[in-house]
Amino acid sequence: MSMDREQKEGAEVLLMGNESIARGALEAGVRVAAGYPGTPSSEIIETLSRFSEAGKLYVEWSTNEKVAMEVAAAASFAGLRSLCVMKQNGVNVASDFLLHLTGSGTRGGMILVSCDDPGALSSVNEGESRHFARLMEIPLLEPADFWEAKEMTRWAFDLSEAIRNVVMVRSVTRMSHASGNVVLGPLPAVTAKAQFLCDGPVSDPDRGPVTSAPVIQKHRLQQEKLRKAAALFEDSPFNTYEGPETPELLIITSSACTLYSREAISLLRAEGRAGILKLGTTWPLPPALLKRHLRRTEKVLIVEEVLPFLEDQVKILAAEQAREIGIKTFYGKNDGTLPMVGELNPDLVAAAVGQILGIDPPAIPAEYREKLRALTAALPKREQTFCPGCPHRASFWGIREALQRDHRGGFVCGDIGCYAMASLFPAAGFHTAKTLHAMGSGTGIASGFGKLGPFGMEQPVLAVCGDSTFYHAAIPALINAVHQNADITFIALDNSGTAMTGFQSHPGLDVNAMGEASPKVDIAALCGAMGVPVTIGDPFDLIGTRVTLNRLLEEPGVKVLILKQSCALSPEKKVKKRFLVRVDEALCRGEACGCNRLCTRIFRCPGLLWNRERKKAEIDEVICAGCGFCAGICPAGAIRSEEAAK
Amino acid sequence: MRDWESDPAEQESGKGGQKELDEQVLGAGLCTGCGACVGLCPYQTVYHDRTVVLHACDLAQGRCYAACPRTPTDLAALRSRLYNETVCTPELGAVKGFFITRATDEGVRRRAQHGGTVTALMALALREGLIDTAILAGEGEGILPRSITVRDPEAAGMQGSSRFVVSPTVAEFNRVCLGNAAKIGVVATPCQALALAKMRTQPVSAAENGIEKLHLVVGLFCGWALSWQKLAALLKKKTDLARVTGMDIPPSCYHTLEVYTTGETIRISLDEVDPCVRESCRTCGDMTAEFSDLSVGSARLPEGWETARSWNQVIVRTERGMDLLELARRLGVLEFRATPPGNLEKLKAASLGKKRTAAIWLAGRGNTAERTGQAG
Ligand SMILES: Cc1cc2nc3c(=O)[nH]c(=O)nc-3n(C[C@H](O)[C@H](O)[C@H](O)COP(=O)(O)OP(=O)(O)OC[C@H]3O[C@@H](n4cnc5c(N)ncnc54)[C@H](O)[C@@H]3O)c2cc1C
Ligand code: SF4
Ligand code: SF4
Ligand code: SF4
Ligand code: SF4
Known about the structure:
Helix content of chain A is 36%, strand content 17%. Chain A is built from 22 helices and 24 strands. By secondary structure, chain B is an alpha+beta fold.
């Protein structure tokens, strides 16, 4: 489905929301794009990287979101159009720079695209990046369909140049990952030369140095820019109204919720009673536009996901304009009409609208419900766990073995990556991982735990961290642990790729986002330079991992163990099994005392199956990745592995 | 005695698996470190001198619980199944004979703890084919013992001396059982001997069971064993651990632990050693390895400790034990001397003393025992 260079202007193609955003940037003549991978945002940079070309479009996967934003800002300062992309919590990482950047202002059009994840479908938070627009005093645009995703992004660059500041475009999972038809526009031939003009006076926004100081002066200027944006929003085509002239109920909404609201109204056949004001420019809200629409009705329902961002703004405007528009009754988050957590859907919105208008939502037909039940019952029950052949399963198995032997109640501080599974689903990490927060936080938390010895804490403290997360945010935390002489064992789970989000490049690899050869930064050398002992191991070498870990757990200070083994889904492993593995039924002890299904009850690689009829374990040859690790854990030697032919 | 010598009703309810083992023994700090629950399956292992659970097993009944010397056991029933009841005494278990012996071979004696009787008998049993494999406790890392398996009588003759940190002897037996050994002899502390006896009499259905390969149990008298961690910490205060060559506990009137080093002998007051004693040993009522074929300890002689220390006292309990000892006498492997009058009575008194102390400890622990989960 993905968009490519061959597709010509005027063609109507099926694009994913994220591709549409990328296309909008391309049609705006973006020259530099930087981001950090994170669902649901990753496809934007991936798409752009396919269009990258020296001197025309530079694309990078940066070490983290803050760096991505800095890289994009530099291009803007040099007069080029630039884009930085991240998921919702990435904006938190970038926010310190963003605060200063919005103070200094930009030159070439610069867009921040943030893809939020209401309902935390692929996150461990449902953070809201919309609030940053308000906090940082920059305009916010939210597309509600695929056409808008492209057009809004394209226009956002113009807006950025008009107000000389960053413009934020915010998408959500259902917008970024759904697909729809989009007509492609022309790709401009951009030629602007990169040059940073910086010899002018501080007050010169085009030729002076770029800083957020003098603060008061710049801050005042920034607020003027914001008012200018609000004025432009008054007649933006991205704000539309559909419905009766004087509806009983006015729904104010934006983004994916627009679709839910439309569906809810049609579900309730309430087209004659409710209208929808769909906003694309959600901060700052254009006051005159709002006044016009609020006048139409007495009752207002604000439909948005998670926190009442729009709701608060609408209420402020309504209070300010109360004399002209009259008193309204508001429905939304604050009165509990809609939930303040999780994703919305048409049913939830229909229930809310139905409640306000006194309409019972149509019941789901009994036979449909029955069909649905039968269908879902037929679905195989799959638990969330590591892939077959995943080195993380082996790493946590080794960690468990070492911690149980050590017997002092040691635990692992988890981190963000596939291996977060160990914290989220205790059985997947064999009950070793006990904390999970932001990227790199496992190491920082461990550093803190590692100083609690004098308070009587005797438990050994471990931190795990993937390679990409290591570069992203674990390094400062590890340096802290070293400098503070915290007692921790830091384990880098090095699977040579940003596996969770689809193998984007990172500083540990020798290729960049554009496919060019690039120098790699070695984790072991970096840790070694911190002056702490570094051991490199292979998680598939169970005994080696366990013995090393037990030794390290006894030693004070910071110890680094790098468990290196490429991801089971990595291109080189996907094509071919290393071992052919089978279960010798005659040896398998099954449920008897002496094994009690260690392989399928505790280890639980999806490649291993329990045959209920025969009461024996077996290998699912289709699913088994051929890593051979399970052969080493079977107490009966029943799992046989032999090296696959070359 | 309570807990593991229990009435039949309690025994019926005392069936269990890993969960019960963990609750009643491991988690309660009562594990002896014998290793009986180790090596049968993937769930328990020994690390240093501690038995640990690696993963949870949910079987309701298992061999781990059945074999453990610290789960409820009907000792009377066990005794009547394995021993001739006519020779059973309440203080020392079965006593078919009581002797003072030592190894004739001076080399064996030099390397031995006391008279070298144990080493000489194991080497003899191997040489004569009574057993084809001997499981002993050899030197491990630092003051940790290591379970060793020997098939060569010469090699067995080179081993000797006591390690006061427990050795996972029964785990080694479980491992060796699976191999091609046919007749296994084990040198066992009382708890290890009890575990082996339990395995002989109540095999839980299992994938494989090698207990029929057990042909000889030479028991050691045992007052207590020490926690590796605590002993190491204590010794570190006194000397360099690497210099320690051995240890012994002279008769109780000396009230010391003697630590032999490459240099001088260090004498540590038992008051200082006492906190290092494994919790489980305080609750143990068996001083003479009552569930063995024959048991060996240090001798008491009128000449005093300096002479007695190179002799052993031996309690023979079974036919097989007696045959071995007589063979040793015939072949001149062991020297015998007359048993001083009153020695058996003194031993009985000491054994009874241990049974009493254990009962008091157990009663004192009650159900409010501190559950640290730490061995020793
Ligand atoms: C922990 C412990 C406590 C003891 N307490 C007493 C006591 O209170 N009173 C008393 O009279 N005797 C006690 N003994 C027995 C005594 O120390 C001698 O082992 C016994 O007298 C036999 O001496 P020997 O010269 O024949 O032994 P040796 O010929 O030296 O042979 C010793 C044998 O003991 C085995 N062994 C050594 N350490 C261990 C261990 N930790 N677990 C299992 N097997 C082991 C060796 O494999 C070797 O076969 C104790 C022994 C141990 C291991
Ligand atoms: S671990 Fe081995 S013995 Fe146990 S069920 Fe699996 S294949 Fe069978
Ligand atoms: S070899 Fe075993 S552990 Fe590896 S993928 Fe196959 S079933 Fe899973
Ligand atoms: S498999 Fe048997 S011996 Fe092992 S823990 Fe389970 S019940 Fe105990
Ligand atoms: S006493 Fe022996 S069998 Fe019981 S838990 Fe300890 S090592 Fe296992």
